Amino acid sequence: MNRDQGNTCRGLFITDFDGTLLGSDGMLAQRDIDALELLRRSGIKTAIATGRSFYSFVNSPGVDVPVDYLIFTMGAGVVTQVGHELLYQVSLSSEAVRQTLDYLRQSTLDFMVHHAVPENHRFYYRRVNTNNPDFESRLERYSEFGQPLDSIPADDFGEAAQFLAVVPSHQTDGALSKVRTQLPGLSIIRSTSPLDHKSTWIEFFHPDVSKSKTAAWLAAELGVKPADTMAIGNDYNDLDLLEWANQSFVVENAPLEMKNRFEQVASNDNGGVAEAVDRWLKDREAGSEI
Asked: What's the first-to-final CA gap in the chain, in angstroms?
């Protein structure tokens, strides 16, 4: 990345995608698009930070959203929005993959292990349970990219971007606590399924992967001071990003415990991102007058 670009960068704005910028109808609101364009005209760099893979994002309605960067797969990779130049990527080593597979093969979790970035829309899977509809939905949606894990030799996977276990909502707390205890060397991130909106996805990454760590890397590359950062999200996998940014917001459709911790704006269906941008810019203007 050309660090000279950071000399004129006045700040960094980062938004989550699903449930935050993207509406429930799968579309982007013009009000939010206008707000993002305003930020860019104001000399502020913009980024989306999503759990989606690069493939999933570029095949979504948001592919033409006016931002400068895409932080994808929870921070495992960064590309420029224009030209899709890969700037940054982190993978689990083959040894970490082997150790995690050894544990998960002994568990009762339905899981997938994804190829390294940027091919991490491709995966192998292991099914244990007969009643996990959300897991089956994800398999069906990406059926052309998935293969059974037992179709390859046990030690023949190599590096991986992530593991993803799909857990029914009533099993979340127990499963999450157990994997964090058994795999302390990994970054383990919880999110609500974007498919059924109730099951839990538990994702396993290299310890350097999180939305906040990659956002901090991007800010440093751009020469942006921590005081000039802002983030908005809607779910548990946004927590570390919201805690990292100097000013943070959650949309109205976020879980109650998150709304109790961060400043709340309208929902993803009612211009929440645009409202957050407006508040942030006004706060910055007021601060500069002091």
From this structure: 34
